[in-house]
Amino acid sequence: MPLTVEPWVLREPTLHVDDLPWAAALLTVANGYLGVRGTLEEQRPEVPDGTLLARVYERYPHAYAERSYGLPDDDERLVPVVDACAVDLEVDGEPFDVRAGTLEHHERLLDLRTAVLHREAVWTSPAGTTVEVRTRRWVSLVRPELVVASYEVRAPRGARVRVRPVPGCPGPSGDWSGPGLVTEACGHEAGATWTAQRTVRSGVGVVLATRHDAASSSGVEPRWQDGPHGRWLDADLDADGWVRVTTHAAYVCGRRPVEELLADARSVLDAAADVGDAALESEQRAYLDEVWERGDVVVEGDDELQQAVRLAVLHTVQAAACIEGTGLRAKGLTGTGYHGHTFWDAEGFVMPVLDHLVPSAAAAHLRWRHATLPEARERARVLGLPGAAFPWRTISGAECSGYWPASTAAVHVTADIAEAAVRHVAATGDDALEREVVVDLLVHGARFWMARGHVADDGRFHLHGVTGPDEYTAVVDDNTFTNVMVARALTAAARVTGRMPEEARRLGVDDDERTRWSAAAESVVIPYAEDLGVTEQSAGFTRHPRWDWSRSPDGWAPFESHVHYTELYRHQLVKQADLVVALAVDHERFTPEQKRRDFAYYEPLTVRDSSLSASVQAVVAAELGHLTLAHAFTRECALIDVRDLRRETQEGVHVASMAGAWNALVHGFGGLRLDHDRVRVAPRLPPHLSRLRFRVQVDGSRLEVDARRDEVTYRLVDGARVTLRHVTGDDDEEVTVTVDAPTATRPLVPVAEPTPPSQPPGREPQV
């Protein structure tokens, strides 16, 4: 799909039918509660999964060749629902189909400032009638259930047109039931339709209620016609005459009777009608104005990266804005890739961005995790352990992965949630959330860790039989990333319960338990290869044989699609950054020299078969002065979907990779480190960038960092004061900005780039 490079627009200047599934993901408009993919309104050709709701999923029984204890019974998968934006257009009796007749012009653009998808088409039918079609659609980022769309047809030389908004009653050939979803009821009346559907096993119902308004040019008299399966609009257009149908749609879902869901959907439409379209669009623009004021990253020197990071910010926000009661999905609602599941990348990659852009969405995700504590505690009980074991992949909160070496063994997820919770409070200063949510997550997690790990004869705290982020090295002892995260989680649990004695008493935490947590955190094992001088990804990892690169698959095909896991597991072959993630997260534990040795060792082993890898490699590469390499990694994670680098964007965009582009710029080139009450900023720019400007939250205040080639300016945007450590070269200076002195400028020392480590053959950054 050819795309133009523009600062605030993603433009598809022509239509390629084969690229429609890819475009459907990129051009999605969504809000975290619902997503409308960028399909053609006419559904010709049809692209599946046009509309998704985060809460509408079905359970599918796992089919195991051999069952064993503790394996989940069911998988959970998002299922698509009826599309509110679908329209059937006939021109002089012929259906509008971009594959028939002559498509003289076709352009779509996603306005990044407003999250509105626009479309213009000029089509001449096989019979020779020309029409112009203009559409626009958007999903409210303020009103979770609301979709607004318009469909306008203009005839330069006149035509008879029929416009049928599709959401009506099922036709004689059947209904819109899909796998796991059935249509229960429907109805239509003057200017309105509704459809009720329900998943079979999970019992989630959804009602779509729509209202349609018609407008036309002077002299045109459109006529609504009623049929047994819906309504349509007929209009005889004179030369340059036009007709427009505007649809307001509301999706409401839940395990309630149809009548209640329909009543709520109609209430949503009533409220939208009361304020009017101008006010609806104004509140949408105000929401995004605040997002861009908070989170826009200005990049000068790389126009393609500038566009890509803004698209990344929008998709990150669209995945999260209205997630109250649900979790952040790996694909957002841009497709059904990964079955619509939530993974640990929500906490590790997406929440660090939301903390600064949309803190309320980050808090909503943490509240959802807290609401699923019963499922996590039950999972720990099944494992024979106290505390809470959060799932590796889920929709409802229950573990639904049938492959335990990469899921149940990936116990770091519980610590990732703890890390995200602590980081969120540090960014926002949300004391209420800390008391109501965070302390529970930390305490139940700490109790799980104390039972999952053990103190061995060496007096050190070990965690055996775990899998870290690297899914090509499974079920190992003392994975460094896991151990580091557990140590941080235990320390945080001891600290928080010490500050909150009432909450500690409620949870039965006493001084003795806190002391055991702290002792375990201080004695956690970090495996180290003395002969190589490098930190081991896990105990004994550096003694595994190295991979024979002549066995590598051709191109960018993932190893797991061509090599059996037993071969992957026994080699020094890293799917995604693992030890390197530990270097990025626990940045004070490792000396700069140790980081250099570790990065140099693991970079030639990391094949990046996961989209989660490049952003973390960018952060650490930038910290170590490999600025050109960091820039290449940043471009890879920013452009992963715009260029369809993995050939899988049709399944949905990679939200964590897109969020990773923001992280790579802010935490990598910006050098931001936020840990409890300590803020460190170490800006450095790669050769291709002349400026980097971003804003971040620090304990509820907002700080702007504006870095240029030779200096950086810190500005207090909101709040009373921010104190930070400004690091450049060998200098480390405390800088404070206040209401009375809101700006401070400091010099930047140019970085001499060392020779970067190489990547595995054929696995250099994809840019």
Primary descriptors:
single chain; 767 residues; alpha+beta; ten-stranded antiparallel beta sheet; five-stranded antiparallel beta sheet; 17 helices; 33 strands; globular
Question: Could you write a compact summary of the structure shown?
Answer:
This protein has 17 helices and 33 strands. The chain has 767 residues and is of the alpha+beta class.
Topology (SSEs and partners):
Elements: E1 4-5, E2 9-12, H1 20-26, E3 29-30, E4 34-36, E5 51-53, E6 57-61, E7 74-78, E8 87-91, E9 94-95, E10 102-111, E11 116-124, E12 130-139, E13 146-155, E14 159-165, E15 181-189, E16 192-199, E17 205-216, E18 223-227, E19 230-237, E20 241-254, H2 258-295, E21 298-300, H3 303-318, H4 345-357, H5 359-371, H6 373-382, H7 412-428, H8 431-452, E22 454-455, E23 461-462, H9 480-499, H10 501-506, H11 511-522, E24 528-529, E25 534-535, H12 565-569, H13 579-585, H14 592-602, H15 613-623, H16 627-639, H17 655-669, E26 673-675, E27 678-681, E28 691-698, E29 701-708, E30 711-718, E31 721-728, E32 731-738, E33 743-747
Parallel strand pairs: 27-31
Antiparallel strand pairs: 1-2, 2-10, 3-4, 4-5, 6-7, 8-9, 8-14, 10-11, 11-12, 12-13, 13-20, 14-19, 15-16, 16-17, 17-20, 18-19, 21-28, 22-23, 24-25, 26-27, 28-29, 29-30, 30-33, 31-32
